[in-house]
Specification:
Elements (H helix, E strand, L loop, with lengths): L15 H7 L7 E5 L5 E5 L6 H8 L9 H15 L1
Antiparallel strand pairs: 1-2
């Protein structure tokens, strides 16, 4: 079990091992739910975004574009990560 310290502002910092377990990176969000028995459930937040954001990430101004195989590989990795 990992122990976390509460700051004077009432905040905690999740240790790197916990962030890796949640599979979250800097800039991503997590969700916390209060459970009736006093525990808190923490999980990676579902990704939300517009299809335009996704399509925009596929265009590269410099260098060659992605092949369909590369796009499929990226999509498969993200799909597996979401599960």
């Amino acid at each position: 079990m990992t122990k976390l310290t509460i700051t004077a502002k009432g905040q905690i910092t999740l240790k790197q091992e916990l962030l890796k377990h949640l599979r979250v990176s800097p800039g991503e969000k997590i969700e916390a739910d209060k459970l009736p028995d006093g525990r808190i459930l923490v999980r990676a937040a579902a990704q939300d975004g517009a299809i335009g954001d996704f399509i925009g990430c596929l265009s590269q101004r410099a260098g060659p574009g992605l092949t369909i195989e590369e796009i499929n590989e990226i999509a498969a990795k993200e799909w597996a990560r979401a599960k």
